[in-house]
Every structure is written in C-alpha cells, then in structure tokens.
Amino acid sequence: MTKFLNKYLRKFHRWLALPFITIIIVLAVSRGTQVGDVAQRMQQVMMLILAVSGAYLFLLPYLTKWQRQRRRTSKNKAVANQR
C-alpha cells in the first residue's frame, strides 16, 4: 500500500506542477481582473497541496530509514531473547 501511495503521490505532485506554472503566468498577465482573482485563489489551493505533498516526498527517505532501523533493532532484540 505504501509503495502504491508513494508512486502515485509522486506522479500527482509532478503533474500538478504544470498547471501551477500556467496559473502563475495567467496571474501575472491578468492581475487586478476577475480572472486574476480566481487564478489567485486557485494558486493558493494548489500551493498548499504542492507544499504538503512535497514535504511528504522530502521526508519519505528519512521515514523509511527510521522504520528500517526500528525493524532491525526489534529483530535483534528477538534474537537476543531466544538465546
């Protein structure tokens, strides 16, 4: 399940960056108009989604390393208890 989530979250994050760049360009051109106001709201929502998914993807290697260490120490304790 985790690999599935990581794979598709990475793809989602990558594909969300393209419309985000487009919205920034639209925002720069149409600042102060009604289209610009809508684009600004969309930009805020997309920025929040990109920040959360990007933070998860950034922390993912550290989380897996921590989980691996926990498994390794619990396995070592189990072997020590058998002796």
Q: Describe it for me?
A:
It is built from two helices and no strands. With 83 residues, it is an all-alpha fold. It has one domain. Helix 1 runs antiparallel to helix 2. It starts with a helix and ends with a helix. The chain has helices at residues 2-29, 34-82. The model has no long low-confidence stretch (mean pLDDT 87). It is rod-shaped.
Largest sheet data: none
- Structural shape: rod-shaped
Q: Find the count of extended strands (DSSP E, 2+ residues).
A: 0
Tally of contiguous helical segments: 2
Instruction: Report the span from N to C terminus.
Output: 35 Å
How big a fraction of the residues is strand? under 5%
State the domain count: 1
Integer average pLDDT: 87
Parts with pLDDT < 50 across at least 5 consecutive residues: none
Helix-and-strand structural type: mainly alpha
